[in-house]
């Protein structure tokens, strides 16, 4: 079959005004970025508040492996499938980061015949949202340095500036830096560093804010440093929140595009799931729920990260009530969880599939803890055998969950009709009794322990006295009600990326905690996870370029 980029390039895209018309969005409410993408105006968004919500469906997955799971592809395929069977559905996805596009993971626009388009635009600069977030973040960093240089009226302790800079690229050389070198004219030297833009608190704020007023309030609440008396300094005290809001004014508006089958899709916001909360924006999801009867959205990486944060952070903060969940698995990935090497995945191995199903089973059990009914989507690969597929279906049946084979990568919506029918029935069944995993009143450390023990199945959480004391200080300062955002490897339930399957008896070491007062959560950094990734030995960027006709090649 043709490559993803070739399939996307051959697509017959409709003008974005036609896609908007399907959602009853008037032309004047669309702010076009060329012919095939547009933002939705803020005035139109306000007018939707009185409408009834559609059904919300979360697509999540088993832990990712090099074999591939296809969560975004399945999200797109399911959205197309629901429309194919006569349901009014749209999808909500995150925007891709340039870091993984040029690193190892590639883009995030789906694959095969289940993609959102224009694929090249979406995976690269798109509508400039990430650039706006990067600019707003680094403006705040510049204002901090400038305030200190011109007399430091807020008495900021230069040793306790917590606001780092960001860049939407994987660059390990920038993790730790020394800034302001070069003499008195350049300020006061100190240690700092960069995170990737998708780990920025401003990214999280943009994705959780409900309108411009809420956005500015949250931006003002960002804690950037501490004084010598250990009291916090906020962006509002630096008078930075107004200018930052101006930079983010258009970025807050959802982006409308389409699938290969010309069905509507919002792609907006993009926090990483292993180092942030991993969901598209509240604004996009809420808007979609007012415009469609079914909204299919995804949460990043495996359900231990993306789904947990979707439920415990996004749904808690936004008052969302998911009606169903889809857990994506592939026979190939289950084999890898069962101990098969990547080079041996093509050979039939039912025993390895069954062994790897322990990872799938753990995710099924975890989703049930939130009171959300689930179905398993087996994302089909051509080497899958009937015996292997049957093994997964039988395993899931024993857990009271149906597993359905989906061939959307090769067949588009025709390959998800069965899945779409089952998901629609599940969402309309009224069986969802959603509740977050923990109550707001638990202590911050108890919340971390709850996630570690009930989702990861860890025996204990390891944290030294400085981490525990910091959590206690935040509780004393009035932040104890916040949820926790666990930053850990996506490849395992544990903090060891090489420990596949469904491990038990492990510990979760929390090496650092960060307060995201504007976003409204506490970040617990576990194990060796990095908030600025590095590139692999052979990055995807080495194979991306232009052909003789000026067309992009190598992007996937």
List the keywords:
Domain 2, N(10)-formyltetrahydrofolate synthetase, alpha/beta, 25 strands, 556 residues, four-stranded mixed β-sheet, Rossmann fold
Q: How are the secondary structure elements laid out?
A:
Elements: H1 4-9, H2 16-22, E1 30-32, E2 38-40, H3 42-46, E3 55-61, H4 71-84, E4 89-93, H5 98-102, E5 110-111, E6 114-117, H6 119-123, H7 129-149, E7 156-161, E8 165-167, E9 177-179, E10 190-192, E11 194-196, H8 201-208, H9 212-221, E12 223-227, E13 232-234, H10 241-248, E14 255-259, E15 264-267, H11 282-291, E16 294-298, H12 303-318, E17 324-329, H13 331-337, H14 350-369, E18 374-379, H15 386-398, E19 403-406, H16 408-411, H17 417-428, H18 444-454, E20 460-462, H19 465-479, E21 484-487, E22 507-516, E23 521-526, E24 545-546, E25 552-553
Parallel strand pairs: 3-16, 3-17, 4-15, 4-16, 8-11, 17-18, 18-19, 20-22, 21-23
Antiparallel strand pairs: 1-2, 2-14, 5-6, 6-14, 7-12, 9-10, 12-13, 14-15, 22-23, 24-25
